[in-house]
């Protein structure tokens, strides 16, 4: 036989000895390795320098941008604080305008104005809106009487004491318990409040007090501020301080907490980690607000710091801001670190690539040397296989001529191998074969395609021989006209042996056909014999039964008890013999009846059998469970006979139970094979006698215990086997029995239109 040979030809050996030596000299040169190492190191250093330079430039640029953003945010915060204070001033001046339009607003009017301004919603940091009167000592009693006459109760001015001027709180909205408790409080008695009120009176402008503790606040309460707007009896601001003092009427003021005010201003600013607000109006810094983390807990210093000085309403605030650490203050720093890591990784990879290229070059040279040596050895192996192979081999060119032949081919054709060079390969055969030249030159891209055929080979000086020929296309070397490899094997002896085997097979088939006809004739004769014997036995049985009945009817009175008992036994034996004959005939019919398979609803068939059994005799307490939807492929009448025997046996052997229970269903059997089953809880049987169950006329129970002829299960087995299935049983004495059987679930593939004999197909 011819096999594909993918080696080079023996006529064209490779000459690579000199180049192998040169490659070996180059690979062993240590200078080449040192140069490769130096080049990889230079690439690594240069790449790292470029990476660090670019990263430093980007880092400084991002830091400056983040610092500018931080400073801009701090300025915005200071501007928002100043803007909110100005809004407070506008609201207070609105209250002052109310006093200019009305000689003295009533508490109800003041409350309406405060509610209209929406203090809680628009100014959440403001604790109230109030009015403080400017009262000389001589006018204080009159103010108290006037206050009482207006129905506001007694005006109690506190702290008590004699002073030249008083500044009691008359109005303060909203009327919370703390604000109500502040009515009558003399603000002019407190030095900090006094200073701010005096400056507002003398300058005619809005003034803000220093940090004070608001009335009613506990010691741990945050510091508060008061904003004062002066009110003059003239309705306008007099030009000189003296006139202002003479015409001074009071102040509209607003108390507020510094921390609430500032925290509300800073809320939502992600760039500021810590803020410190100090009052530096008098030179000595007084802390009035501090918020945020100082950075001492986590040890991370602030990336940026900035101070803003805010001068407003006669006070000077210094606001010191600290940013988050650099990792948070410069959001792009993390990306820059990632870029730096990627740059370092890229530098290392680039250096590794350079080093890998150097090593790859060396490895390529080693591989080239090894492949050259492998090629030389392959040439030697091919030459050896051609020379010593027992199968004839020949290399063919594009014209189908022999380029080289091995000695085995010369022995097969009876010629010298050297004389075959240049001979057309087709000239060696007597019969015609495919066009070998066209097949060798056809370009279909499949160089491994193989042709196998048997041809008649012409052998010089001898009879023609049968040869098994295999041709395969193989590629030749560059410039070499080699297209195919042909292998020739002398199979003459094998073909002759096969011919002898075929002759013996034909003889054997004839013998088998003859034996089959003889067996069929014997079966027919046996069935005819059984049928005739059963019919011939019926005549004497009928005679015995008839004469016994006449003897019992006419002469029964003349017989004693023993005689009548003998007569009854004769009639019972006659009836049993008739039943056995009927059973024998039924079994013979099971083998002869033709199958008419179709799809059968076994669940419905089982329900019909149970109804027939219940109609035949009373079955008190019997419970029968039939699984719905069970179907099989088989003969309806035979399957009805099968279920009648199995369910009838289950009913018969369960009759002695208090609660007889029978099941018919489908599931995996004891060995895991799926099938149908009939299970009962009756008398059962010993498992050691299971082989006797399906033998004709074999019984495990006496006739006095359970009546029967012993052929029911034998008939069941024959029906199942005719459908291509199998049946098995399992049970225990006194614990019931289970019969498992398989049937085809679908018609076999070779069944004509769903009919014909049932063959073993897919079974339950």
Provide a descriptive summary of the structure in words.
Helix 1 packs antiparallel against helix 11, helix 2 runs antiparallel to helix 11 and helix 15 packs parallel to helix 18. The chain starts with 16 loop residues before the first helix and ends in a 23-residue tail after the last strand. Among the domains are: 104-258, Beta-Lactamase (2-Layer Sandwich), CATH 3.30.450; 390-489, 2-Layer Sandwich (Beta-Lactamase), CATH 3.30.450.20; 498-585, Helix Hairpins, CATH 1.10.287; 595-742, Histidine kinase-like ATPase, C-terminal domain (Heat Shock Protein 90). The chain has 764 residues and is an alpha+beta fold. It contains 18 helices and 23 strands.
CATH superfamily of the domain at 104-258: CHASE domain
User: What's the CATH architecture of the domain at 104-258?
Assistant: 2-Layer Sandwich
How much of the sequence lies in strands comes to 15-25%
- N- to C-terminal separation? 48 Å
CATH class of the domain at 104-258: Alpha Beta
Portion in helices: 40-55%
| Overall pLDDT score | 79
Count of helix runs: 18
Q: What best-fitting shape do the alpha-carbon axes yield? A: flat
Low-confidence stretches: 1-26, 752-764
According to CATH, the fold-level topology of the domain at 104-258 is Beta-Lactamase
Cα radius of gyration in angstroms: 61 Å
